[in-house]
Structure formats: C-alpha cells, structure tokens
Amino acid sequence: MYIRNAAGLVVIGLTLFGASTKPLQADAIRAATDDWPPFRILTDEGFTGLDLDLIHEVGKRVGTDIDVVRMPWGRGLASMQTGAVDVMTGLAYRKERAEYIAYTDTPYYACETAFYTPASRPVSITSYEDLQEHTVGFVLHSAYFEQFDQDTTLDKLGVAAENILIDMTKRGRLDVMIGTDCQVDYYLKTQGLGDLIVKTEYRPGNTVNLFLGVSRQSEWAERVEELNTIVKDLVDEGVVDAFARRYYDNPS
C-alpha cells in the first residue's frame, strides 16, 4: 500500500487548530468545524459560510445555541466517536462512519469529485487508470468516491487540510490532487489560482452528497428525527439555496 503521510504538514495543522476552551452551555449544540470555504470560512471574527448559516438556523429552529469548536477534520471525526462534540457538517456518507454518526436523512448540498493538476506542468488524466502513473494528493480522513477511497495500489500522499493540498499542487510538488468541485473551484476562484491549477479531463461522475451528522454518543442523537425534519424543511423551503447564493454569487 503506497499511502504516505506528509507528517510534518500534519503536525503543523494540529498545532494551529486547537479546540475551544470556552465553557459550554449544557444544552448547546457543539459543532466541530474546520476551514473549507465556502462552506466553512475562517475570518478574523470567527467562522462564517454556508455550513455556519445552516447550523445556526438549525439551532434557532430547535431553540438552542451553537458552540463552534475549531479543529482539524480528522480530530472532528474522532471527537464525534467519543461524543466530545455533537455535530459536524459537510459529511459524505460512509458505512464505517455511520457506526458512530447518525446522519440526517436529507443531504443539504451536492457536489462532484474532480482531479486537478498544476498548470505549470499539467499531466494528462483521461481515465482512472492514468492515476497509476502519478502521485495523487488527498486530504486525510476525507471521503471522495469508493473506488479511490479503497484503492491500495495508487501512490497517495495524504495531508491535513485542503489549503495545504492546493498549495503543494500550485507549486508543482504534486502531479495530481483530488478534491470536491464545489469547494476547490470556489477556492481557486477567490484566491486567484485559476491559472495555476486546472482540472483534468477525467471525471469520476459521482455525486458527493453533504449531510449534517450527529454523534451517536451525544444527547442530541435522541433528537435526530427532529433535526432530520428541520434540515429537510430548510432544503425544501429554499433556505439552503439562499445561503449558498450568498457565497457563490458574490465570492470574496
């Protein structure tokens, strides 16, 4: 198996992303989050983005506060296993995750998987088999599509966060990176990187549905049906689409 861990980068990520020490209200929903624009955007004032709009509206409708806890994606998943946090957003469904996460029934957003290559020395990827010839960067603990996720024959390089992956690709340190188009395309556009990183011809053609998930160790797991109804209502009422337009129509 050729998965390699960029250890130094992971250490940096874990150092920068500390968990909140703010005292929590007993009934507050503790939401683990990381920086993944436009869904979760870290600013000087804290987090904003589509997912933050969503979870705060859920809190409003269920009648409780939201306590946002900043941590890397992998630590967030580990915290969901123990119940140290209550919810996460932006979750792709995976059977192994469902053992400790109660997914809401309705996905609130849908994306697709894409591969990207540095424009300075682009490689030709026209089929999945072409990936065998290159090192493929990915974000640790992420779920892309089953074939890639389970493939132990590819030369994969795992890093802690999407921005690290994009920076390595921009600098030509990676031949190819995998990403979720609704996030990577937005990031490339807002950061002015569209001329430095380009999509490959090959598209897996899969849909990546994004869900709100509740830790099965959380007291909120007992109210997951209520959360199901709220998320479905937000989608059906067009509220989530309105949230998305705030960011996609006016990227900054």
Shape: globular
The CATH superfamily of the largest domain is known as: Periplasmic binding protein-like II
The arrangement of helices and strands along the chain is: EHEEEHEHEEEEHEHEHEEHH
**Count of discrete structural domains:** 2
CATH class of the largest domain: Alpha Beta
Strand count: 13
Structural class: alpha/beta
Gap between N and C termini? 40 Å
Determine the mean pLDDT. 91
The residue ranges in which pLDDT falls below 50 over 5 or more consecutive positions are 5-26
Q: What Rg do the Cα atoms give?
A: 18 Å
Q: How much β-strand is present in the residues?
A: 25-35%
Could you explain the architecture of this structure?
The chain is of the alpha/beta class. The chain folds into 2 domains: 17-109 and 210-248, 3-Layer(aba) Sandwich (D-Maltodextrin-Binding Protein, domain 2), CATH 3.40.190.10; 110-207, Periplasmic binding protein-like II (D-Maltodextrin-Binding Protein, domain 2, 3-Layer(aba) Sandwich), CATH 3.40.190. Helix content is 32%, strand content 25%. It has 8 helices and 13 strands. The chain has helices spanning 7-16, 50-62, 73-82, 146-150, 162-170, 181-190, 224-236, 239-248; strands at 4-5, 29-33, 41-43, 46-48, 66-70, 87-91, 101-103, 109-118, 135-139, 155-159, 176-180, 197-199, 207-215. Strands 1, 2, 5, 6, 7, 8, 9, 10, 11, 12 and 13 form an 11-stranded mixed beta sheet that branches. A two-stranded antiparallel ribbon has the order 3-4. A hairpin with a 2-residue loop joins strand 3 and strand 4. Helix 2 (50-62) packs across helix 7. The chain is globular, with a radius of gyration of 18 Å. Residues 5-26 have low confidence and may be disordered.
